[in-house]
Amino acid sequence: MKKPTIIAGAFILCAILSCEKSEEYSPEEFEALHPAGLNELLAKTVSKPWEGQDFVPGKLGGTWHSVMQADPKSFNRLVAEHDAETRGVVDAMLDYLIEYDPVARDWKPRAASFEVKVDEAAGKLSVIFTLRDNLYWSYYNSATKIPVTSDDVIFWYNGIWGDPEFQSSGYYQEFLTMEDGSKAHVDIEKLSDKSFALHFPRIIADPLLASNMNFGPAHIYKKAAERAPSLLKTV
């Protein structure tokens, strides 16, 4: 009996307020109004802090504001793989290899520079990343700084993402469907302490999107995996 009462109440309220259908624009009318409206909105904007400048290095201190529905469970990158609130905090502490600039509509280096090499004869391609020299793993209230190397990325790609038992969201990103319907793995290769390559078994439209990632410190997670492999599978 409650549902009809609610419906009737809504109908009476609509009648009292003289509800009526709003004016609608055709797609052509909307397209004609949109650019002018956007320009007018931007012209009235008081603060325009971003004009295409690159990011600057972060500084210790300050306040970070965010909104979430529950507390983060941990600062562990592995826990963040399976918990949205934790990921919302942990991801802000890590950089992706590259980032997409929606204004310039192009990819830009972030933690690493990149180069795409296509072998059309073999029908394959590779993405070569070179990490910045000034990347370090640092710790709160500590002067310790450990350089970030390609070993960190390779361990994360093979040992974390590449472990099917861990059920990482990145696991399926490591495979491509071939023309015959089979699955082929995107392999990673160490070139130097700062450089590594992702080798794709076939040519794809956007290899940068497919190879972009963030990662954790191998010197912590690798030791944990060797000491107690089950820890990586039960978080």
Q: What can you see in these coordinates?
A:
By secondary structure, this protein is α+β, with helices and mostly antiparallel strands. Helices cover 30% and strands 20% of the residues. It contains seven helices and ten strands. The strands form four sheets. The chain has a four-stranded antiparallel β-sheet with strand order 3-4-10-9. A two-stranded antiparallel ribbon has the order 1-2. Strands 5-6 form a two-stranded antiparallel ribbon. It is globular. Residues 1-18 have low confidence and may be disordered.
Concise structural overview:
The protein is α+β, with helices and mostly antiparallel strands. It has helices at residues 2-16, 27-43, 77-80, 84-90, 150-161, 207-211, 218-227; strands spanning 98-101, 106-109, 112-119, 124-131, 136-138, 145-147, 175-177, 183-185, 187-190, 195-200.
Tell me the number of helical segments per DSSP (H or I, 4 or more residues long).
7
Q: Structural class given helices, strands, pairing?
A: alpha+beta
Strand line-up of the largest beta sheet:
3-4-10-9
Percent of residues in helices: 25-40%
**Shape assignment:** globular
Q: Mind describing the biggest β-sheet? A: 4 strands, antiparallel
Distance between the termini: 47 Å
H-E string: HHHHEEEEEEHEEEEHH
Rg (CA only): 25 Å
Query: How many strand elements?
Result: 10
Beta-strand proportion:
15-25%
Give the overall pLDDT as a whole number.
Answer: 80
- Extract low-pLDDT stretches: 1-18
